[in-house]
Amino acid sequence: MNKDKVFSDADKAVADFEFDKSVATVFEDMLERSVPCYNEIQQMIVDLTNDFAVNNTNVYDLGCSIGTTMINIDKELAEDISFVGVDNSDEMLKQCKANLEEAGIKRKITLENQDLNSGIELENASVVIFSLTLQFLRPLNRGKIIRAIYNQLPENGAVIVVEKILTENSMLNRLFIEHYYKFKQTNGYSSTEISKKREALENVLVPYKLSENNELFLSSGFKLVETFFRWYNFSGFIAIK
Questions:
Q1: Which pick of 9, 72, 162, 225 has the fewest CB atoms within 10 Å?
Q2: Regions of the chain where pLDDT drops below 70
Q3: Residue 175: enclosing H or E segment and its boundaries?
């Protein structure tokens, strides 16, 4: 696994974060060192996908990045369930394809390069996954894409979401972010790396409050939204049609 050093150069000017080749080649390390309880979250996604995926349907991984989620889910699902991975980064999709091939996955998998800000067309979907993806969509487009997904899912279809979030209280929000940065330091990131990545993400990753995410799905028609994971400023929740 290549080590994440994307923001280690203190003298390099900071630009908006992009999922380019420099990120794609170290993304596995970046996730494991930057996302609290990453492996546990992945297992939760596997469990919930297995609960709601229907035979002879498609599971969509929106923002599939390097394919980690699909590789993990593959171990549990029936063989007649197909995967569709969607990402807007050629470099991520290239790494995803290589990782899927290395994992020896036999089921049908389709990879698509698409900007989710322009919408999404689902085909025979039973589960849709947004693992650290929805937060990167422009806020004005989030309601539109959630409504489109709702309209294309069958009854009891599920959307599984993992997100960075804001809290309802500004003081607690500050404290939770401080604890998150301490977590990153414990995992070997320097203060410079943490600061530069925060600056790079400032205009790219726009988190919502958990209540705002819940309302986004409920107002789009989903009958149930339930949190299954929470760690300071990270949350996982599932929405059922």
A1: 9
A2: none
A3: helix 170-186
